[in-house]
Design brief:
Length: about 180
Amino acid sequence: MKYSIHGPHKIKKSSNGLIEPGKDVLKGFWGNIDQKEPGLSSACGCYLFAVKAGRGIKPWYIGMTTKRSFAEECLGSHQRNIYDHVIAKRKGTALLFLIAKRTNKDKFVKPSIKVQKDISYLETILIGAGIEKNKEIQNIRKTKLLRTMIVPGLINTPQGPPSLDEREFVKALIKD
């Protein structure tokens, strides 16, 4: 299974600081994406909503789409409510990353009613990575274990200097 990463794509905010509403705005947003990468808006996979402020980018929500396309899912009313809740409280640029599933012939995979376990698994991995960077991530589903499990150097590392064993463990897992 192969995936490709696309973004960050800036999400327009209106004068009140929330996500710009309207079908015309959405049509333009997805049209711009398809202009850069034809067919991406109708693909499926995972997506990441983040906010860029200063020099950093912080993840705030991670989702997946298997039965609906990115264009049908990523900026739906449920997602926009979450995004608005996040950006109403902070300054920065709203961003969307798309992680699109690819076929063996390097085409975008289209949504289907077939179960795509790999996309669900990828979403869980991305949520875990997101929690590591931002404990306030807005995801609820798939987060209970990821928020409570502690594996020093890997998941929810406690503050303080790592032990020699923990440092060696991390060396064994991390790319050189």
